[in-house]
Amino acid sequence: MATTAHPYWPRSLPLPGYVASARPGWQCAGAVAAGGAGLLALGWALGGAGRGGASRSPARRLALGWFLLCAGIHGILEGYFSLRHRELPAATGLLADVWKEYAKADSRYMTSDDFTVAMETVTAWAWGPLSFLTFLAFLRRHPTRYILQLLVSLGQLYGDVLYFATEARAGWSHSDPRPLYFWGYFVGLNGLWVLVPGVLLADACRHLAAAQRAHDRPRHKAH
Question: What kind and span of H or E run contains 83?
Answer without folding.
Answer: helix 79-84
